[in-house]
Give the backbone structure.
Amino acid sequence: MFELLVYLFENYIETDVRADEKTLTRELSAAGFDSDDISRAFSWFSDLTAMADQASPEAAADRAAYRIYTLEEARKIGQDSRSFLLFLEQASVLNPLEREVVIDRLMALPENEVGLDQTKWISLMVLWRHGKARDYLFVEDALFSDSRPTLLH
């Protein structure tokens, strides 16, 4: 499903192409995507939108908070990904609320484990949805560059 999320983001959402769900489903099916994955991807983006719409500035205020991952989160979200999220938060790219949205969206992926590239893509999608263009470009550069940020432990 992750590949479908990236495909939708690059071809429809990021470019602000407006198409109804029925038309998109037909196009995605023709492109070879599974109908169950298509449905799950629409739901995934719908949940992302709902989370962004419900966000309040007060929820993002406590930058001093330190995130302790549950065992389930730590198993699914690898150390490289957790370090990358910490890096983004310490660089003030993500606030605590946005970090939680990224973690929620990573946990909503059907994969058993998510890697660094997946974390970068999901971070990019969250920043885009939260309207943070400058920070979006920062993560986009990290995603497409060959160098990796310094991992923090």
